[in-house]
Amino acid sequence: MDLGFLLTGLLTGLREGVEAALIVSIVLAYLAKTGNVRHFGKIWLGTALAIAVSVAVGVTLFVTIGGFEGAAEQIFEGVAMTIAAAVVTWMLFWMRRTAANIKAQLHERVDRSLTEGSVFGLTLLAFTAVIREGIETALFLLGQATAAGTQATSTLVGALIGLAIAAVIGYALYRGARVINLRTFFSWTGVALIFIAAGLVSYAVHEFVEAGLITVGTSRAFDISAVLPHDPAAGPAGVVGSILRAIFGYSSTPEWITLLAWVAYVAVVLPLYLRPVRPSGATRAPEQRVAGA
User: Fold this and answer.
1) What confidence tier does 67 reach under pLDDT thresholds 50, 70, 90?
2) Of 11-20, 158-167, 277-286, which has the strongest mean pLDDT?
3) Under 8 Å between Cβ of 70 and 130
4) How far is CA 269 from CA 86, 203, 207, 218, in A?
5) Which residues contact 249 (CB under 8 A, 6 or more apart)?
């Protein structure tokens, strides 16, 4: 079991799981508050269907990657990691933009479903709300598992642990416990995911170099393998290097192009993510803020 890939999977599962759990807990709490507990089953059905579809998508893509060989495999892996990095980047900024009024939006959708009296309205609401998080999780874990190679199991085990913790947090949120400050949680995990996504970008560029698609900047930028190798078999320093490699895409012998890709991604995405969010309108009531969900 590789600790680095275990941690990346755990962080991904925890972050994405909490987002999905937050959505489900808000809907269930609102149904309970309005005397519609009898509709809980429809929410659980939609959630279960979304999870099943997400797992099917992830397994199908992972098996598809295993069916390629040689340059085709390297290209497909590079594309998969690029898509995973793009998806998590989009997800981070989407959550950053919509977090302030997600609770009010969900309440409005629940009211609409109850008013229209559609049998499957609430099921569809839960499915569409959770499937986005599920597909994002599947794609991001696919990229991480592809980068992990033979240690892909470590990533998946970490993800399951993260999802289990997220489920506990979701139940606590439904019961009204402030187990964590969600605004702080999403901010810090978002920063961590940016560095993980940067690692996926550098992995993807490396795969394109190996496949011969990129021929510029392929010379070695530096070699510090004698100080901090990324091979766990090289002793304690190698273990540290392997953890950094799993989490941040570190390499003791990077090509110039992969190093520049990593630096460019962080230099562009991190400042944009950390800049203050402009209020979209009048100051919202406390109950509409994610931190108070």
Assistant:
1) low
2) 158-167
3) no
4) 11, 17, 22, 24
5) 147, 196, 198, 199, 200, 201, 202, 203, 262
Res 64 pLDDT > 70: yes
The answer to whether 230 and 252 have CB atoms below 8 angstroms apart is yes
Query: Using CA atoms in the order 176, 180, 186, 190, what is the torsion angle rounded to 10 degrees?
Result: -150
pLDDT band at 286 (very low <50, low <70, confident <90, very high): very low
pLDDT, tens digit, 9 for 90 and up, residues 8-47: 888 888 888 888 888 888 888 888 888 888 888 888 999 9
* Residue burial 51-73, b: 16+ Cβ < 10 Å; e: rest: bebbeebbeebbeebeeeeeeeb
Residues facing residue 220 across a β-bridge: 255
What mean pLDDT do residues 275-283 have?
Answer: 60
The amino acid sitting at 230 is H
Which residues are paired to 255 by β-bridges? Answer: 220
Tens of pLDDT, residue by residue over 88-143, are: 888 888 877 776 677 777 788 788 777 776 657 788 888 887 888 888 888 888 77
pTM across the whole model: 0.74
The three state secondary structure string of the chain is: CCHHHHHHHHHHHHHHHHHHHHHHHHHHHHHHHCCCHHHHHHHHHHHHHHHHHHHHHHHHHHHHHHCCCHHHHHHHHHHHHHHHHHHHHHHHHHHHHHHHHHHHHHHHHHHHHHHHCCCCHHHHHHHHHHHHHHHHHHHHHHHHHHHHHHHHHHHHHHHHHHHHHHHHHHHHHHCCCCCCCHHHHHHHHHHHHHHHHHHHHHHHHHHHHHHCCCCCCCCECCCCCCCCCCCHHHCHHHHHHHHHHHHHCCCCCCEHHHHHHHHHHHHHHHHHHHCCCCCCCCCCCHHHCHHHC
